[in-house]
Amino acid sequence: xxxxxxxxxxxxxESVIIEVQVDIASSxxxxxxxxxxxxxxxxxxxxxxRSALKNSGADFPARRITINLAPxxxxxxxxxxxxxxxxxxxxxxxQISANLENTLVLGELSLDGSVRHTNGVLAMAMLAKEKKIxxxxxxxxxxxxxxxxxxxxIYPVSSVLELFYHLQGTKKITPVPHKPFSGIVSxxxxx
Length: 191
Known about the structure:
single chain, alpha/beta, 4-stranded mixed sheet, 3-stranded parallel sheet, disordered C terminus
């Protein structure tokens, strides 16, 4: 089965949508491959995602799993693809059924399934607004940063399990309210 989850990347001064495509083959030896110019941190997502899913009580499919980060010609850097990869595996394996259209997902996973701080959240929120994406699932610790961008539903995620319950409708995550940016406060006393 194939699943698609939208995420994003910052390349230089520009942000672009990255489609995380997850395919779980019904035949073949168990393997887990990530393609699409991943750096070392993205390659290591395999172990973080596997452990996070298992430690969250989900099944990690013992099948051939291929993750494509598209477009394939752009370098993918950092651990922010962990959460979209994990979510894609849950959807592709049939453990969760979710409508992920108009949704951006990003976040690094800990081995216990908790979602860690991720860099570039403000740029991703700006990208989502520019591309008319309505929802963002991101680390709870980054939610205040993203809340300065209006016209978005920002869902603070603390763990894979919390996101699983939200998407299943068991226990909903409350979106963070928009907080307009009030400018930079100077900490320097100029006299």
